[in-house]
Task: inverse folding
DNA sequence: CCAGACGTTGTT
DNA sequence: GTCTGG
DNA sequence: CCAGACGTTGTT
DNA sequence: GTCTGG
């Protein structure tokens, strides 16, 4: 799955990669966790935009925001059917920029985190969905989730699921509200291959309070 | 009809 | 909001 | 995803 | 063991 990731990039590079106006308040993050605000790219009313949303999709009918903590991922295999996701899949797709992501390997001696990046440290874009939720106090909260699919050959030794990664040439395909739904579904079930790099990192990433480039330093196995 | 769920992961 | 279970 | 809480009463 | 919060 995808439950922790990084985003450390200049506003200019992010803007160039996704063809959107620069975001002003973009701090490097090496330990982005569920329920935190995350950068999300979508087609807004006035064109493509990058906005912050809470990670963990809160369905519009939810009674309180806490249900979102469980909906940090959506399985590609079932996203068309699930009440929490199917409407968003048709109408509110987004991309979630990332520099890399973490997966934990379960072993007899415990869990070990690994870090995954693209060649040349290219920016990733996770396929995502977003939603609007009206809080009882009248506040509108926007939230998002990351699509997952079967792990590829680089991720498989560590974990059986991975985020759906959208290559840059598929940016418009994924975000365009007019794209054919069956084609989108086929895409996230079998995304284009990506050549990921993988290496073990220290357990400091386990604690959400830790942040900084030291978290992605390679560690001994 | 109304009430209650609506999710993923991992582990078994 | 919509579906499932009773 | 992992870490940390998981409870009530009364007092500050 | 299971849920909540980050």
Result:
């Amino acid at each position: 799955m995808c439950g922790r990731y990084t985003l450390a990039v200049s506003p200019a590079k992010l803007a160039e990669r996704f063809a959107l106006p620069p975001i002003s308040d973009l701090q490097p993050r090496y330990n982005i966790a569920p329920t935190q605000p995350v950068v999300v790219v979508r087609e807004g009313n006035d064109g493509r935009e990058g906005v912050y949303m809470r990670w963990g999709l809160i369905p519009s009918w939810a009674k309180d925001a806490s249900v979102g903590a469980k909906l940090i991922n959506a399985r590609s295999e079932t996203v068309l059917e699930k009440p929490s996701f199917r409407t968003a899949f048709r109408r509110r797709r987004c991309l979630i920029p990332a520099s890399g992501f973490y997966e934990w390997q379960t072993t007899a001696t415990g869990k070990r985190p690994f870090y995954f990046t693209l060649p040349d440290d290219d920016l990733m874009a996770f396929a995502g969905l977003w939603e609007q939720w009206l809080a009882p106090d009248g506040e509108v909260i926007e939230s998002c989730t990351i699509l997952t699919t079967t792990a590829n050959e680089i991720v498989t030794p560590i974990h059986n699921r991975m985020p759906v990664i959208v290559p840059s040439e598929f940016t418009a395909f994924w975000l365009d509200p007019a794209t054919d739904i069956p084609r989108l579904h086929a895409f996230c079930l079998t995304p284009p291959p990506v050549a990921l790099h993988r290496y073990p990192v220290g357990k400091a990433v386990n604690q959400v309070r830790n942040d900084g480039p030291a978290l992605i330093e390679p560690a001994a196995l």
In short: The helical segments of chain A are 11-18, 86-91, 171-175, 181-189. Residues 1, 3, 57, 59, 61-62, 67, 70-75, 78, 82-85, 106, 145, 148, 159-161 of chain A lie near DNA strand B (CB under 10 Å from a C1').
